[in-house]
């Protein structure tokens, strides 16, 4: 493939995975696979710098901004770390860095906990904001949720400004107990911790057994080294991980380190390689998940001298553990077809225990991957949980004497019998009427991350599709759900819930609708980027595509030429334009509602409003929210003790009852209009 095209493909793929990892907390590839993609892009950018864009994924940290919480800029650098996978290489990096610094510098080795990164900002001894990592420049404000964590100090004896980086996590035992009570299970403790920080109700977060370790502090006053910072944080009431190693060739410095942290391991630089291996071997006994160790230069002045790249600090390095492996047998290969026709082979394995769970399936990626492994049915294989999350087949340990030498994907789609087409490394079913593609598109559209039509789950969609009642996405809005009356398993209450969820989905903002269309390359992050760049109306997007102006799309941050050309194709397609027209007729939003006009006054300053029920003049309810914000007020989603006013329309429901119980001022729509006029 042409290097420039390959770079565009890699950039688009990396941005998509960044969104799934940081926004949705639902990664579909392992850290190691992601790192390999990024390494390939970095290598291509070194060889072809003329094609390296200023907004390449190699120059930024993955984003977790999802619009559910206010966005605030970071006041301290929040970057990723460069990575190594061998203890020998990590020891070499440490020695090389020490030689470059001179004067016997010290290094710390700390556990890299697999949780959710957080930055706590304090002023005058009070916790002001708690921000997620975001894109490294700005993060989501999840302060209300973080305040529910008992281990987070709300007040500290520090008069100056202080920023603290930490990791929020859940122990494995707590995860098993808590996850057992959930209807929708989380895959691992990290996903539960990250998801809990994005609960719209902080009361839900308070129920989750979250913990935190602080690992960096940015004080207004001077400190000589990292150990002083950690000790100072500990003295202020922050939890600092006691599992700490300190390495330095200076004996007096090691003695000083142990005076500050008596439980820490201390040794000359030559001892770090053995220490890394010992901690890797012992990590199963740690009560929480760690996916590696972090080596840091302790001297703060030397850190300033070494500085940063665009992606990571030069004074720190992550040493990642190898994934644990197990032996199994390949029983068969399941061929999956996605909503855009992409074919994915999945290994069906003889059940085997790995990392505390039973594995029966593993990803095989594509035919090239199968060919590389020379994998056939009946082979004995080594599997691993890459990044301790997604099982994958790593190698063939023993070939089968009876099965085929190498498995081959079928020539025809197993769902519609149309011929599969190979494009690049992947095979595709290009039949738009393929039943599996249609069913997957319906499921994707209704999923919580998209239109959030909760009552239309996978089983219901499969049933309605099999009956022929739902075939295309617009059918969701045109189908008469009363036809379900009398069908086994569909009682009146369930049918009412489906109707209500479908109707409520019409309130979803344009960004969600755009991403839910399911067009290849048009993920949520791309949709948000388009809207932020001014493509805030579907007609503007369609008009740009009609001109074939892919350069206009490519000018959007995070969108490369390959994705830009895809957008032109998508929004020039007659079938897609018909889909959009039908959904627009159904009442879905295909333009962003303009931001509220300029500030009028401060008559609502300090007030927290919740809006509920059906309003006549302010329909949709976002119009009322705009008026509140224009007058200095804040709008929240749920009624709490901090709520000052409830704007209640018809059929207000449980929020009205809770507001009355808490003696919160309830305002009718007519009273609200009077308040606006009074000013």
What structural keywords apply?
679 residues, alpha+beta, Helix Hairpins, 6 domains, six-stranded mixed β-sheet, 25 helices
What kind of assembly state do the chains in view correspond to?
Answer: single chain
Instruction: Name the CATH homologous superfamily of the largest domain.
Output: DNA ligase/mRNA capping enzyme
CATH topology (fold) name of the largest domain = D-amino Acid Aminotransferase, Chain A, domain 1
Q: At CATH's second level, what is the architecture of the largest domain? A: 2-Layer Sandwich
Binned, the helix content reads: 25-40%
Biggest β-sheet strands, sense, barrel: 6 strands, mixed
Count up the helices: 25
Helix-strand category: alpha+beta
CATH class of the largest domain: Alpha Beta
What global shape is seen? globular
Major sheet strand order: 2-12-11-3-9-10
User: Radius of gyration over alpha carbons?
Assistant: 27 Å
The total tally of domains equals 6
Instruction: Give the termini distance in whole angstroms.
Output: 63 Å
Strand content: 15-25%
Low-confidence stretches: 59-67
Describe the structure.
The structure is a single chain. This protein folds into six domains: 52 residues, Orthogonal Bundle (Helix Hairpins); 249 residues, 2-Layer Sandwich (D-amino Acid Aminotransferase, Chain A, domain 1); 104 residues, OB fold (Dihydrolipoamide Acetyltransferase, E2P); 73 residues, Orthogonal Bundle (DNA polymerase, domain 1), CATH 1.10.150; 76 residues, DNA polymerase, domain 1 (Orthogonal Bundle), CATH 1.10.150.20; 71 residues, Rossmann fold. It is built from 25 helices and 23 strands. Helices cover 35% and strands 20% of the residues. About 1% of the residues have low confidence. The strands form six sheets. A six-stranded mixed β-sheet has the order 2-12-11-3-9-10, with helices on both faces. Strands 15-14-13-16-17 form a five-stranded antiparallel β-sheet. It is of the alpha+beta class. Helix 1 runs antiparallel to helix 2, helix 3 packs antiparallel against helix 10 and helix 17 crosses helix 18.
